[in-house]
Prior knowledge:
Blueprint: E1 2-8, E2 11-16, E3 26-36, H1 38-44, E4 59-67, E5 79-82, E6 85-86, H2 92-95, E7 106-107, E8 119-123, E9 127-129, H3 136-140, H4 142-155, E10 162-166, H5 170-181, E11 186-190, H6 194-202, E12 207-209, H7 216-223, E13 228-233, H8 238-247, E14 248-256, H9 270-276, E15 279-282, H10 290-298, E16 308-313, H11 317-325, E17 331-335
Parallel strand pairs: 10-11, 10-13, 11-12, 13-14, 14-15, 16-17
Antiparallel strand pairs: 1-2, 3-4, 3-8, 3-17, 4-5, 5-9, 6-7
Helix pairs in contact: 4-5, 4-10
Amino acid sequence: MKAAVFLGVGKWHVEQRPDLDPGAGQVLVELQAAGVCRTDTHIFRGEFPAQFPVVPGHEFSGIVRQVGPRVAGLSVGQRVSVDPVIACGWCEYCRRSKPHFCRNFTALGVDIDGGFATHCLVPAANAYPVQDGVSADEAALAEPIACCIHGLELAAPAAGDCVAILGSGWIGLLMVQLALIHGAGRVVVSEKLAPRRDLAAALGAHAAIDPGAPDADRRLRDECGGGADLVIECAGASETNRQAIALARDGGCVLVFGVAPPQAEITVRPYEIYRRELRVIGAFSTPRKHAAALSLLAGKRLKVEPMITHRFGLDQLGEALETLTQAKGVKVMVMPR
Length: 337
């Protein structure tokens, strides 16, 4: 088998490895498609904890090629999408149905070898059968979709709400569509790159504002009717987190979804949160929303293909990471074959 390996901060190579055999409760998946995530770039730059050396890639789909002992419900030749979060099942958070807070949390592509390879060993419980009509690319991207579903469930927007989305990269564009599925009456996007603004409009956003344009803050607020019921921060920057709190209407909600650097800080006046009755919430990972994501894809309620702008082979992983880091595209895929 062939795998791209992060050797340490800023170091990677492609290597040949011995073939894998699944153990008890595992399946061997031959990769069909894998998505490159901002988390992959953070790991590569040493900005996100990981176990080096590791095969990165936590958004992927493939075909079951071998089934280990004590596996039920999966068979050789079956197409699967993989949930990368591996929880222990017995700690206090797992018992509370919050596996993403597991005390013994591990993840494929972060702590354990993941999907930037021709093959990967996957716990059978983390391999979800893919419905007919769902492409390999779509199935690979069920993981970030599941994360977005979780975030919106926490924010709980009401039908007719105005939703403002700060940043319309891959995640922001997913949020545009999911907010509309939730019944948002108006979706307004703030995005500095014109192609992404155009794509947001094509996917249903009612307005897309350039934050660098003159009087952008006033225009954004006007498009939200004076303030948004829900502001989703998708850029992962201190500036946009501050902006999100200011943009929310009284009684509104701010969903902190973008992954800011761990050392990033903002100053918030507690009185403002108190007086305006704001809800400021975060959303981390995906607590068992993978099946829901696949159902949305099977029902053709989400458009994924228009957002895939680049595809690279394993040998081109460095170029794939650079393309995402430099915002040269929207969604970047690695094709393991």
